[in-house]
Structures are given as C-alpha cells and as structure tokens.
Write a structure and sequence with these properties.
By secondary structure, the chain is mainly alpha-helical. It contains eight helices and two strands. The protein has three domains: about 30 residues, no CATH class; about 35 residues, no CATH class; about 80 residues, no CATH class. The longest helix is centred in the first third of the chain and has 14 residues.
Length: about 160
C-alpha cells in the first residue's frame, strides 16, 4: 500500500518532493539511481541491465537470471527492404561527381546489382601522400549468352 501511495504522489510532484514523500511513507532505497543513455546504441538498456537484478534481489527473488537478447544484426535482407527494394539513392549517387564514390549504403546496394566500387590500390599510397581522395572505379558483372563479338564488346565497354 505504501509503494502504491508513493507512486501516486510522484505523479504530481517533482523528483525531490517524490523522494521526501517516499521517506515519509517509510520507503527504503534498494538500488542507486542511474541515468540511461538514450543516445547509446541500445538506448536505456545499458543502465537498465545493471538496475534490474538489484530490483529482483530487493524483492527477495534471488534465483532469477537476467539475460539479454543479442542485438539483431543488420542483414542484407534488412538493407534491401529499407532501400525500397534495391532502389536506394544509387541513381543520385552516380550523377554526383563530387568525390567519385557512392555513399556507403549505396555501395552495398550496388553489390546486389552486380556493381562493385573499388579504388586503385596501385596508386592508393601516392594519392594519400598528395592528400587527395582514392581513385574510384567500378567493376560491373554482366551476363551475355554465347560468345561476345567485337561489336558487342564495344557496346558494353
């Protein structure tokens, strides 16, 4: 009953007043207050994982094991779905000549289409010494039935 009454009081007052009301009602602190970091990769969970076992212990439940689920990995299927089913911003990235490369998210998407972005590793160190960006190029995988004739090759090239 005291816990419920303290909770009802806390809805209407500041944190300081809530602490004072809890003391008047005989409440005891069983765990330190902790701040969660909502900017952390898992949001508030990091702070909560430390706090939850202390709550169970204060309630007399010592045999419960608190386990956390593994974070779900971002898979290629997630990337495909989030990109509007392989659309992404590839077309915008291909016409942006600002740095000669696609955005990282679009680089992964182009792989699904058989297009691979790479930089020329033979001149990478030289370009780094000059302080310029890597020399990006693309390799495109194509399928052609039969044998490629010279005029067909020129059309692809």
């Amino acid at each position: 009953m005291g816990v419920l009454r303290a909770a009802q009081i806390c809805v209407y007052v500041s944190l300081g007043q809530c602490k004072a009301a809890a003391r008047v009602l005989g409440a005891e602190r069983f765990a330190d207050l902790r701040l969660g970091d909502d900017q952390d990769a898992d949001g508030f969970e990091t702070g909560y994982m430390v706090w939850e076992p202390l709550v169970w212990k204060a309630l007399g439940v010592n045999s419960i094991e608190v386990t956390e689920a593994d974070p779900e990995l971002v898979t290629n299927e997630h990337i495909k779905t989030a990109s509007g089913y392989l659309g992404g911003a590839i077309s915008e990235g291909l016409v942006d000549f600002g740095n000669g490369a696609l955005a990282a998210s679009d680089t992964q998407l182009t792989k699904f289409h058989g297009i691979y972005q790479q930089d020329d590793h033979n001149i990478r160190e030289e370009r780094e010494a000059w302080g310029v960006e890597p020399a990006f190029s693309f390799m495109i995988r194509v399928r052609m039935p039969g044998v490629c004739k010279p005029d067909q090759w020129l059309q692809m090239d």
